[in-house]
Amino acid sequence: MDNHMKGIKILDFSQALAGPYCTLMLGDSGAEIIKVERPGSGDMSRAWGAEFTPGMNSYFASINRNKKCMTIRMDSDEGRELIHKLAAWADVVVENYRPGVTQKLGMDYDTLSAINPRLVYCSITGFGSVGPDAKRPGFDLIAQGMGGIMGFTGEKGRTPTKVGVAIGDIIAGMFGAYGVMRALWERERSGEGQLVETSLLEGQMALLTFQAGRFFTTGESPKPAGNIHPLIAPYETFPTKDGYINIAAGNDGLWSKFCTELGIEDLEKDPRFDTNPKRVQNREELVPLLEKETVKFGKDELLDKMAKARIPVGPVNTLEELFGSEQVKALQTVQEVVHEKIGPMKVIASPINYSKTPDEIRTPPSLLGEHTDEILAGVLNLSETDIAALKEKSII
Q1: Dist CA 110 CA 96 (whole Å)
Q2: How many CA atoms are closer than 13 Å to the CA of 163, on its beta-carbon side?
Q3: Mapping DSSP to helix (H, G, I), strand (E, B) and coil, where does residue 86 land?
Q4: Do 124 and 14 touch, CB atoms closer than 8 A?
Q5: Which of 21, 30, 91, 207 is the most buried (most CB within 10 A)?
Q6: CA–CA distances in Å: residue 44 to residues 16, 124, 342
Q7: Strand, helix or coil at 57?
Q8: Radius of gyration over alpha carbons of the chain, in Å?
């Protein structure tokens, strides 16, 4: 049975992370992707991370598999002509330029949809296409700060802290892929494409969920409070002799089991802590008493003890510990793809599992311009002479 997106052709003008993560998801689902980059430098992320070989590093490789890469000088008349021909071939365009840039390049939605009315055009920006901040450059750190999450992430009384991965970019990319899927489904009914827009800022706001709900109810902005849950206790990170673990005693029944396993039954009945609302209210008194007990155990010992009592628990892993765990091995989340020039490369597989149409890692990330000649000849039917002329003018 074919993958969900097999036969869907995507023209990818995006770079860095948000757009490439969007097309990563679509590529894993079977779409054919042509990634268009600037000659010479390419996607800015080709210069980030530990390098395998010139033009290919750990950052770029982590989000650009299942894509063929070509180069086009997009600010030239000849390059613009090539883009328009490719847009006629494509089902989907994905870009993450600032608003206004694609209009200058002649590759905006209005221009390309006039060429191909069935085109689904996905635009991922920093802050949306309207409003006073629309044309500002949008990077993950900026979006995390503006989007509210960073305002309540970090240790109490300390500097606000961003999430350790570029969650603003990643979430925007995920919403972009979701939007493309929905627009393609609508096209099946109407026969028409449409413009799909999302932004880093809107993605961050979508993640606020119950924190936004609390604000709408109380009018109070949440503050950084470490790893606690603002509505549940104990639900946080605890020290052991040789590391940290997370324990989530999310109701009074789990609290009772937790106390039993630690041998602190007296705290279970303590009137300060005998219900969850009281434990939340008196957290500053409770936590030091619990930490005094958890540090008596080794990390694995306490994890095993809590797990046997069916108390939600988990280690705070390093990546070495994560990728070496039996659970990750069982899930086969880490897979290997072989690049003919670089050799074997490890990648994180799609987190979605299907019984009939699984996602696939078909090809490794490509070198800059690796497939330019192949695409121009195979998709646009250009001759060797035509391609040589474009190279002579530095268009490709």
Answers
A1: 16
A2: 15
A3: helix
A4: yes
A5: 21
A6: 6, 16, 20
A7: strand
A8: 25
Q: Spell out the per-residue pLDDT of the chain, length 396, in tens.
A: 667 788 999 999 999 999 999 999 999 999 999 999 999 989 999 988 887 777 788 899 999 999 999 999 999 999 999 999 999 999 999 999 999 999 999 999 999 999 999 999 999 999 999 999 999 988 999 999 999 999 999 998 899 999 999 999 999 999 999 999 999 999 999 999 999 999 999 999 999 999 999 999 999 999 998 898 888 999 999 999 999 999 999 899 999 999 999 999 999 989 999 999 999 999 999 999 999 999 999 999 999 999 999 999 999 999 999 999 999 999 999 999 998 888 888 999 999 999 889 898 999 999 999 999 999 999 999 999 999 999 999 999
Q: Where are the domains of the chain?
A: 9-207+330-392, 235-317
Amino acid type, 349 = A
The secondary element (H helix, E strand) that includes residue 306 is: helix 299-308
- How many Å apart are CA 236 and CA 27, to the nearest integer? 37
Q: Which residues contact 373 (CB under 8 A, 6 or more apart)?
A: 387
| The domain made up of 235-317 is a member of CATH 3.30.1540.10 | yes
Structure tokens at 69: 């890469």
Phi, psi of 160 (to 5 degrees): -55, 145
Beta-bridged to residue 226, according to DSSP, are none
d(CA 205, CA 146) in angstroms, rounded, equals 9
Asked if 121 contacts 109 with a C-beta cutoff of 8 angstroms, the reply is yes
Pairing of β 51-53 and β 32-37: unpaired
Is 71 buried (19+), middle (13-18) or exposed (0-12) by CB count in 10 A?
Answer: buried
Residue 233 burial (C-beta neighbours within 10 Å; 0-12, 13-18, 19+): buried
Residues identified as active-site: 169
- Give the span between the Cα atoms of 208 and 226, in whole angstroms: 16
Question: Is domain 9-207+330-392 in CATH 3.40.640.10, yes or no?
Answer: no
